[in-house]
């Protein structure tokens, strides 16, 4: 694909873009800022100080602050505690599950935690399972997404987030029968199946052949299942956080041969409770890659809250997280503009606002800082992975950018690396009713900036 180059006026020692080919975008619906990481004036600045909704490019601010404040090796801890004695393989009292707010905590991790409990010699829980949710106080919200209720991308954060609060439907073709199984087998979710065996056609995605209707407690599945769909899976968002965590715990505990608990409630572990089993997460850098490459809102919001918790914000964790992020901007010498508005730090927001310049300055600071490798590695690679897997085939892996999409928002922010190794930080954000169809124009604009940077870098006057 060929793109028109950005018209540049070179002046003095730096290059400043005086005109941009907006590829059909209206001047008042796009904000652009781009500058060399290795130093020099901005190469492009169009409405760079106008507050705009960044959609998921807001995750870059949260991830940058988390790396600086917590470090790339920060890990979340999940623990099972009790003050009750163990007699004959039975815990003679309540078990407390101290949720750590681990954004990547899944069924495999929970199974490992429960296996540690079994290794201790406990097979029966005679008391209650009490969810200790002290990790997060107020978690903030994501207003005006009621029409998306039940979809996985709007699942909120929680101290006991497990499997991103989704269960899996696994489809089987056994001979001439077709069936579906819920994994884990949650007691509060009923699966109704009207599946029929299908033919011999290929099955790239089981959802092409089955319909799934889900209200959170009842999942109805119907369709004709080809033989090639045997073993394929689809996820469903079911139950509320406490119910999901409690029923998931019980299902996996029983799978390990355990008995109990009596019931699941909330409670705070007493000071004298001892640790019976613990799970430590993989490092923050691994979570950050999941957040940015796949634009995971739930995980990003959980990371945002972790910033607040580590700053002592037990009562209002979301407010504490905002204070941390703004303080980090000031500490790093980045203007804490009045235009910056935060709701949950993930970009799943109708209210969050940032300027292209502020977001760009964060990119510059991240690329020049001690955790540049971890930060840049977390971004989708053009034509390779994540949300850029099918975009920018002409530019390839020298381009790494975070994407952002909402109703009326389309955004890109990240880095281009020229052939000589120099890097350009780029921010381009479209706001307006035409944003949904602006993808090709936005990609063309970013490509122009990248190719123009290459051209400028090859000029004799360009600094090495």
Automatic annotation (TrEMBL):
Gene Ontology molecular function: any one: serine-type D-Ala-D-Ala carboxypeptidase activity
Keywords, comma-separated and alphabetical: Carboxypeptidase, Hydrolase, Protease, Signal
EC number from the UniProt entry: 3.4.16.4
InterPro entries per the UniProt record, alphabetical: Beta-lactam/transpept-like, Peptidase_S13
Signal peptide positions on this chain: 1-19
Any Pfam family hit: Peptidase_S13
EC primary class: hydrolase
Family of this protein: Belongs to the peptidase S13 family.
Protein name per UniProt: D-alanyl-D-alanine carboxypeptidase/D-alanyl-D-alanine-endopeptidase
Name of the gene this protein is made from: dacB
